[in-house]
Amino acid sequence: MKRIAKYGMLVLAAMLVGFPLGYFYSQRTVGKGSNILSQTYALSEYETLANLQYKQADPLHASRAQLDLLNFMQQLQAKQKIEIPRALDYDRARVIMRLALLEENAGNKEKSKQYILEAQESLKDADHKTYSEEQLRTFVRRLMPNLIFEIFDCCNRIIKGRPSWSRL
Fold it and tell me: What is this structure's pTM?
């Protein structure tokens, strides 16, 4: 009986120490993961809408969609501590560069140049490198393929026996 009481007290002491430690530790790890997930999800949903408008709408609406997305990114950064700031800087640079291309196509060379400088600054914040204008254009072109068609093409290759995983 004494042995059961000793083990019972030991379990109780372990629970009294373990539960509070687990609670406070989980707030640091699970809470951070939850913040990352919610920020990423909110931004990706807004980006999906803006990207669809960028690809399908006329230049005026495409530009408005990109400006709205840029404004949302700024609001997100102002209201919350961004858990992955480097990813936000890359996304911001891509959006600003899309605005530069839209302005260039509209004939506004000075506004386009201003956007290009902003995109360079955003990428400099992300990885402390300076990118040329041509590198920025490549950066935007590389991130613009329609993923649905890429997945469809990959599935066709798999069905035909020629998998191409590098295209995903």
Answer: 0.67
